[in-house]
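Journal club prep, notes for RB
We'll compare a predicted complex against what the paper describes. Inputs for the 2'-deoxycytidine-5'-monophosphate case:
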Amino acid sequence: MGEPIVIALDGTSASGKSTNAKLVAKALEYVYVDTGAMYRSLAWHCLEKGVALDNEKAIASLCRRWKAELRNDDGHIRLYVDGYLPEKEIRTAETSAAVPTVAAVPGVRKWMKIKQRDCARFGNLVMEGRDIGSNIFPETDFKYYLNASLDERAKRRAADGVDENLAERDKRDSQRAAAPLMIALGARVIDNSAMTAEETSTLIINEVRKRLEETG
Ligand code: DC
């Protein structure tokens, strides 16, 4: 067996990354990885441990020490913390507010890169995030960047019952020094403002299948 295939799915918040990554992973029978959930888990852990969010050193130090372990739960890679899987806790407003600060710490990004690359031991991957094509798996031939208008993304968030300043989040994700959100070299950009998830995922699935057939 050759090297595992990695499909990198990056993009702005509420651009449909999770929905599409899951659909693509299911259709191709690849393993799905939500890297945002990994950053959220660390942000939650920092809050639990009372680490001051303005203390970069303390955040990086906790990240080096935490007992976080990757597990494959039915084709979905999840990060367990001390044997526990935080789920609801990582979606609260408090964790959401803390995660951009935690995700901007260089020591955290270094740790996450090692852990995220390690996911390839589980097989072919669909990995969603902000820097997968540009920084985590820059060598992959399968890079996609999803986006949609601010209006459309705000509507999608509102439909999920979340009121969030997306423009502010985009700015923070794009302007941080460490591994900012960007369109990776060679990525196919898909603006799905007027597309359904079905349409977006089908486009990706068909393209990946075709290219894999061409390369044998
Ligand atoms: O995709 P999400 O909303 O769950 O991401 C949560 C936060 O983590 C968001 O502020 C962006 C950040 N993030 C990141 O910096 N790099 C990633 N690969 C994934 C998420």
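Talking point for the session: The chain is about 50% helix and 15% strand.
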